[in-house]
């Protein structure tokens, strides 16, 4: 299956949603150029309040566009950038990737997957009831997070809608994604 970038988004100010862009530039070790969450140390407000010296394992937020179709079926209208992601992809099961997977975006950029996004109550402020759609429980009671994955920029470069996404799995044994 061909995997691709379907949208890119960024915002220089704290806001739940991020406007779509024609392109974004990923900066090695930092994140999305001009995005409020770019940096070597954590930039998410709740993380900064806990410990501002933590490494930023959430430089780039990626969501699979297939989630939007699932949410539409449940009565929600959500599109690229609405949940604060930087890169929207199609044709790849992001949630099934192991920690350490390298995502080659376009001709140059490489993002290393660090873990799952841990969605917060702000999602319900965007659309009431949406949090229950992106966080649930499996039959065995484990928490299932569907609001995308996080990563760090290994190699910078420009990323545009239509760019190919190539997946490079880490050596085994693979570690499943956990919230970061």
Automatic annotation (TrEMBL):
<protein>
    <submittedName>
        <fullName>MOSC domain-containing protein</fullName>
    </submittedName>
</protein>
<dbReference type="InterPro" id="IPR052716">
    <property type="entry name" value="MOSC_domain"/>
</dbReference>
<dbReference type="InterPro" id="IPR005302">
    <property type="entry name" value="MoCF_Sase_C"/>
</dbReference>
<dbReference type="Pfam" id="PF03473">
    <property type="entry name" value="MOSC"/>
</dbReference>
<dbReference type="InterPro" id="IPR011037">
    <property type="entry name" value="Pyrv_Knase-like_insert_dom_sf"/>
</dbReference>
<feature type="domain" description="MOSC">
    <location>
        <begin position="18"/>
        <end position="168"/>
    </location>
</feature>
């Amino acid at each position: 299956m061909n995997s691709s970038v379907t949208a890119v988004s960024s915002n220089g100010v704290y806001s739940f949603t991020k406007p779509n862009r024609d392109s974004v530039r990923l900066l090695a070790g930092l994140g999305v150029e001009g995005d409020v969450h770019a940096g070597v140390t954590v930039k998410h407000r709740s993380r900064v309040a806990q410990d501002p010296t933590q490494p930023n394992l959430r430089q780039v937020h990626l969501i699979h566009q297939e989630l939007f179709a699932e949410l539409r079926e449940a009565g929600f209208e959500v599109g690229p950038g609405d949940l604060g992601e930087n890169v929207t992809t199609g044709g790849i099961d992001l949630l099934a990737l192991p920690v350490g997977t390298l995502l080659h975006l376009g001709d140059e950029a490489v993002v290393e997957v660090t873990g799952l996004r841990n969605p917060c109550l702000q999602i319900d402020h965007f659309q009431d009831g949406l949090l229950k759609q992106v966080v649930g429980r499996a039959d065995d009671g484990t928490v299932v997070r569907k609001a995308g994955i996080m990563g760090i920029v290994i190699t910078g470069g420009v990323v545009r809608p239509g760019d190919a996404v190539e997946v490079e799995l880490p050596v085994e044994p693979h570690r499943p994604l956990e919230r970061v």
